[in-house]
Write a structure and sequence with these properties.
Membrane-bound Lytic Murein Transglycosylase D, Chain A; elongated; 3 domains; 316 residues; 10% strand; alpha+beta; 13 helices; Lysozyme; two-stranded antiparallel sheet
Amino acid sequence: MGRIGSVWVSFAVMFGVHPGVSAQISNVRQSYILLYKDIAIKNMQEYAIPASITLAQACIESGNGTSRLAREANNHFGIKCHTGWKGKTITQTDDKKDECFRKYNRPEESFKDHADFLRYYNRYAFLFDLSPYDYKGWAQGLKRAGYATNPQYAEMLIKVIEDYRLYEYDRPVKNMPPSPKVLEIPTIVQPDIKSPLYTASLYRTIYQRNCVSFIYAQPGDTYASLAREFRLFKREIMRFNDINKNGPIEVGTMVYVAQKKKQSAREFPKHITEEGESLRSIAQRYGVRLSYICSYNKINKNTHLAEGQTLLLRKP
């Protein structure tokens, strides 16, 4: 995803071509926009991604629907397979020869996957701090996040949006989903006076994520010492944190002092993996038991994660 799949479209947009060819491209693009505008508007309501940005990206990435990936695979954003993709595939030379790309039954599936990548991939999380009506900010943000290799990608998006008045499709969002960054801010809780957490709360701050209580480790903490402090068995607190080896804990480490949930919060149904992440680190981040993440994705706890892999965090 993020590769400019149609070089001739890029040149037509940025530098101009023969008037006859330019008019032909314009007609094809206008028809393409009219065909997919409703999907883009629907995704804006659900994901808070500007419809104008979605349409402009689709125009550029798919060559206005004329690229082989769009025609033969309903893949309008050049999304590659990535590890864990279980759907149909198609091969095409991109960065390397015969790379694997996702093949969809319907274009709507491609548009949804594109929205998922922006919403659940951490590198794009900052975009959702922007207004969904700030198409220029989104265009510049996509460029800054490295969505595409073309250094003029932001300018290309803005030009398409303004030439075709795509900003007119940026409709008011009724129930705008909060920014992923805001949703991940842990809440501070005050345990009930009868709770084992109460004693610890006198000198520790208790947080919650996904309605599960946790603390940040302090100097000298071990799972054994924290178990005593919170009136737990050592094996319990280790199980809560999906770990099987006791020892010193790095200062600042998130340590759950209650059992994690079977599923993530509704706002985080899935996660797009980044380089260096592990199944356990993701389980800790979202307050979900590792065993359930493995079950939802039909993998084992030792599975090595590849960048761009989609993990379900809730029951399919």
